[in-house]
Amino acid sequence: MLIKNCEPLVRAHIEAQVSLSAQTIACDGMNAYMAYKVTTKTSLNLFNRNEFTVKRRFSDFLGLHSKLASKYLHIGYIVPPAPEKSIVGMTKVKVGKEDLSSAEFVEKRRSALERYLMRTVNHPALLKDPDVIQFLESTELPRAVSTQALSGAGILRMVNKAAEAVNKMTIKMNESDAWFEEKQQQFENLDVQLRKLHASVESLVCHRKELSVNTASFAKSAAMLGNSEDHTALSRALSQLAEVEEKIDQLHQEQAYADFYLFSELLGDYVRLITAGVFDHRMKTWSKWQDAQVMLQRKREAEAKLQYANKPDKLQQAKEEIKEWEAKVQQGERDFEQISKNIRREVGRFEKQRVKDFKVVIIKYLESLVHTQQQLIKYWEAFLPEAKAIA
Amino acid sequence: MMQEGLDDGPDFLSEEDRGPRAVNVDLQTDATLQVDISDALSERDKVKFTVHTKSTLPNFKQNEFSVVRQHEEFIWLHDSFVENEEYAGFIIPPAPPRPDFDASREKLQKLGEGEGSMTKEEFTKMKQELEAEYLAIFKKTVAMHEVFLCRVAAHPVLRKDLNFHVFLEYNQDLSVRGKNKKEKLEDFFKNVVKSADGVIVSGVKDVDDFFEHEKTFLLEYHNRVKDASAKSDRMIRSHKSAADDINRIASTLYTLGTQDSTDVCKFFLKVSELFEKTRKIEARVAADEDLKLADLLKYYLRESQAAKDLLYRRGRALVDYENANKALDKARAKNKDVLQAETTQQVCCQKFEKISESAKQELIDFKTRRVAAFRKNLVELAELELKHAKGNLQLLQSCLAVLKGDT
C-alpha cells in the first residue's frame, strides 16, 4: 500500500517511487526465507534506467539503515529509522501472531519496509547517497552481518545510550537560539501525544478484531436459533439476520485492517522518527566544542606557566598544542553551526512531510470509514423487508 | 430524541422510554386493569419502584393508586404464583432479574481514583459516559419489573390473584425479607431435584403429538436462546469498547490539534470533532442493539424456561397419574383399598387434564407472543441500525468534503 504524495504545489515532490512485493525463496538445503522485490520508478539521471527491480532480504534493509545512520545522524539529518524486527505494539499487546510465515506478519513487514524505503528516497540528500543508489539498483548486494546490532531496536538502544550519556554530563547548554528550544519542546509534546494516540488506535484495532470474532460467533448462534424456531417466517428472518451479521463481521475485520495499516502504522513510524534523537546529537556536538574550548584554555594556562619555567622544549610543545586545540575549537564551532543549519532544514522538511502524510492518511482513513457505513446501510436495507415479512 | 439521549438528564418518563415495556410483551391495554411503574428511585443498594394502578374493578378501594415496592417484593409475588397448585397449568411470567449496578458503580469508583491521570475534559467526558451507562441500566431494570407486572395484569386468571391485589394496593411494606440462608439452601436442592426429574420426565414419550413436539422444541430452543443471548452480550461489549477507544482518540486528536502549529492542526481538530460525534452514534448503536436484541433474547430465555417449567409440571402430573393407575390396578387385583385408589386416580386424572388443557393454550399464546415480539424488535433493530449508519455516513462525508476542500 503506497502512501502516495500528490502535492504538486509543494517544493519537495517525489522524484523516485518504490514499491515492494514479497515472495518466499526456498534454498536447497537451507530454510526458506522471505525476499522482497523492490521496484523503482524514477526520472533522475542518477540511475541507469527509469524502471528496475532487485531482490532484497530484511537484513539488507537493516544494513542500509546502519550505513545511513552512521553517515548522517551525527550531522543532524533525520534518518528514517529501520523497520522493527518484531511486531509488538506500543501497548505491548501482540496485535498479530508472531508466526513468521503467517500472511498477516508478511504483509505488515512488507508494508513497513515499503514505507521505510519511501521515506528514505523522499529525503533529497539520502536519495543521492551512493549506498541508497546501490541498494535500489545493484543486482547483488554484499550480505549485511550481525544484524542483531543493526535492527531498529538496536540502533535505538545505541542512540538512547548516547542521549543518556549526554544527560549524565549535566551540561546546561546555553541555548542562544530560541528556535531550537521551541522546536525541542514541540517535538517532545508531539512525541507524548503521538504515543498516546498510537496506543488508543492499537486498542481500537484490538477491539475491532474482537468485535469481528464475536459478531461471527453471534451469527452462528443466530443461525442455530433460526433452525430451531418452529415458526417458518421467523425462522427465515433469523437465518437472514445470521447472514447479515456474518457479512458485518467481515466488514469489521476489513475496518480493523484499515485502522491498522492506515492509522496505527503511520503513528508508529512517526513516533520512531521523532525519537531518532537529532537534537541530542547537536548537544553532543556543542559539548565537544565546549570541551575543546576548555582544553584550549588549559593549554594556554600551561603555556603561560612554562614561560617562567625555562624549559624551551616543553614550551615549544605547549605552543604546538595550543595551535592544535585552536584548530579543534574552530572545527567544533563550524561543526556546531553546520549541524544547527542541517537540523533547521531537516525539521522544516520533516514538518512539511508530516503535514502531507497525515493529511493523506486521514483522508484515506475517513474514506474507509465511509465505505464501511455504506456497506452497513446496504445490508440492513436488505434485511428490513425480511423482518417485516414475519407474520 | 434518542440520538442525544446520552446528554439528557434523568428524563426516563419520556414517551420514547415507554417503548421497551411493550417490546417483549403483546400488551392488550385493558381499561379494567392497567399497571405501570411511574417512578423509581435508586438508593445506595436498593431500588424503590412506584407501582401505579388504574382499575375499574370492584376489588380495589379506589380507581387509581400507587404504592412503593422493592425487588424482593416482586420475587415474593412471583414465587407465590409458582407455589400455587392452581396455577400449575400456566406459564408463570418470569421474575425480573435483580437490579445490578455493581459493575457500573465499580467503574465510577475507578474513574474517581484515576482522576489525576487524565485531563479535565477527558474526566468530564468519561464521567458523563458512565453516568449515562448507569442511567441506561436503571431504565432497563425499571422496564423489566414493569413487564412482569403487565404480563400478570394481562393474564385472565393471574390478574385476579389475591396476592397480586395486595401487592398493588397495600401501602405498607410487605415485610418480605430476603430469603435467609436455610431457605436459599432448600431452594437450591429443590432446583437440583427438579432438573434431575426433568430428565426423567422428558424421557417419557407423550401420547399427545402437540406436547411431544413442544417438549423437543422447547428444550432445544431454550439452549439456543441461551447461547445467542450470551454471544450477543459479548458482541455488544466489544462494540462499546471500540466506541470508548474512539472517544480517547478524539481527545488526543484535539490535544494534538491545539498543540500543532502547522496547518495539519485544522485537520486534527476537525477529525477530533467528527470522532466525538461518531463515537456518540457508535455508543447509541451498541445501546440499541442491547435493547432490541440482547434484552429480547434474555427475556425469551426466561420465558422459555417458564414454559419448560410448565411442561415439567405437566410431566410430573402425568407420572402421578400413571402411578395412580398402576396403584389402582394393584388395589383391584388385591381387592384392598380400592375406593381410596379410585379417588386418588380420579384426582390425578383431573389434575393432569386440567393442566394439559390450559398448558396447550398457554404454549400457543407463548408462540404468538414470541413471534410478535421478535418481529417488532427485529424491525426496530434494522430501522435503528439504518438510522445510525446513515447518520454516521452523513457526518463522515461532510467532514471529508471540508478536509478535501482544504488541500
Shape of chain B: elongated
Supply the number of helical segments of chain B. Answer: 9
What share of residues of chain B is helical? over 70%
Strands of chain A, count: 3
Topology of this protein?
The complex is a heterodimer of chains A (391) and B (407).
Chain A lengths: L15 E10 L7 E10 L8 E7 H15 L30 H20 L1 H4 L2 H8 L9 H4 L1 H17 L9 H51 L3 H43 L3 H30 L4 H77 L3
Antiparallel strand pairs in A: 1-2, 2-3
Helix pairs in contact in A: 7-8, 8-10, 9-10
Chain B lengths: L18 H5 L9 E10 L4 E9 L8 E6 L1 H13 L18 H12 L6 H35 L7 H8 L11 H23 L5 H51 L4 H71 L3 H69 L1
Antiparallel strand pairs in B: 1-2, 2-3
InterPro entries (chain A): AH/BAR_dom_sf (IPR027267), PX_dom (IPR001683), PX_dom_sf (IPR036871), Vps5_C (IPR015404)
Membrane topology (chain A): Peripheral membrane protein
Pfam family, one (chain A): Vps5
Describe this structure in words.
- The complex is a heterodimer of chains A (391) and B (407).
- Chain A has 391 residues and is mainly alpha-helical.
- Chain A has ten helices and three strands; from the N terminus they run E-E-E-H-H-H-H-H-H-H-H-H-H.
- Chain A has helices at 58-72, 103-122, 124-127, 130-137, 147-150, 152-168, 178-228, 232-274, 278-307, 312-388, and strands spanning 16-25, 33-42, 51-57.
- Chain A has a three-stranded antiparallel β-sheet with strand order 1-2-3.
- In chain A, strand 2 and strand 3 (51-57) form a beta hairpin.
- The two termini of chain A are 49 Å apart.
- Chain B has helices at residues 19-23, 71-83, 102-113, 120-154, 162-169, 181-203, 209-259, 264-334, 338-406; strands at 33-42, 47-55, 64-69.
- Chain B is elongated and about 105 Å long.
Q: Summed up, what is this model?
A:
The complex is a heterodimer of chains A (391) and B (407). Chain A is mainly alpha-helical.
List keywords for this structure.
heterodimer; A: 391 residues; mainly alpha; three-stranded antiparallel sheet; 10 helices; 69% helix; B: 407 residues; Substrate Binding Domain Of Dnak, Chain:A, Domain 2; elongated; disordered N terminus
